[in-house]
Write a structure and sequence with these properties.
With about 260 residues, the protein is α/β, with parallel strands linked by helices. The protein has ten helices and seven strands. Bound molecules: NADP nicotinamide-adenine-dinucleotide phosphate (NAP).
Length: about 260
Amino acid sequence: MLKAYADHWGLITGASSGIGAEFARQLAARGMHLVLVARREQRLRELANELQVAHGTKCEIIVSDLAKPGEPAKVLADVRARGIDVELLVNNAGFGMVSGIDETEVDRALELIRLNVSTLTEMTLLVVKDQVVRGHGGVINIGSVVAFQPVGYMGVYAASKAFVLHFSEALWAEMRPRGVTVTTLCPGTTRTEFFDVSGVPGWAEKNRSQDVKTVVRTGLAAFDKRKQYVVSGWINYILSLAVRLATRATVVKGSMSVFRPRKK
Ligand SMILES: NC(=O)c1ccc[n+]([C@@H]2O[C@H](COP(=O)([O-])OP(=O)(O)OC[C@H]3O[C@@H](n4cnc5c(N)ncnc54)[C@H](OP(=O)(O)O)[C@@H]3O)[C@@H](O)[C@H]2O)c1
């Protein structure tokens, strides 16, 4: 469990927009000092200024392409060199990819796996090892409602989030008696830049979706209760349970209609 939010340090990956930026706002409001990590430096600087003015908390920024091998260890070495102990890690950086097999760029798929899976794993393991020695701390990993099932035309992304959920839940059980909490936040469709990057711009606005404030509030409430995972939104939660009742073939065939490309 966290010793405290106030006057302790959090590290948020993917803090330059969407869910990550909102985590920064809600954690700074709780008095937490923050390390903000992403590639877009200007966005990070603007957010750091905003938080310092609004809450008087400290903010460090680290510009990093976390999909590059070696970057997570480099970022954490930089954090240590600044004399910072990470009390809360939010592994949020990630992207999606919607495409049929004919259009799928293999390099992009591998980049997705490096960021969503390898980087998250490396950051989590390195930070948790230190937290266990101190006997307190926590990690919030961002999964997804698609972590509960395969999704046609979004197969690589959904599988990456299934990894996040299974890995994080196992760690939750292992770390709980040792004073460290690992919670997975599984959002459904959320209004951020995610679908623009994924190749289906405007998708969130055209479909049932949540705002980032609600999603992050849900994640922090679950973390405070030391829950192993939480799905944001009741309908999303029911959907995550419903897939357990149907056959796997039914579930995956049903998923095809969500992102099936329209005939031109
Ligand atoms: N929006 C949804 O519907 C939804 C649903 C379920 C789960 N999620 C998950 O929520 C998390 C946040 O996504 P979001 O919805 O907030 O989307 P977003 O607005 O696109 O934010 C993604 C963040 O990840 C960072 N990022 C991307 N590639 C990176 C890289 N190579 N190195 C470092 N940082 C990188 C981006 O920063 P830079 O571009 O500045 O590097 C940005 O800050 C992701 O893990 C996503 O899978 C989203």
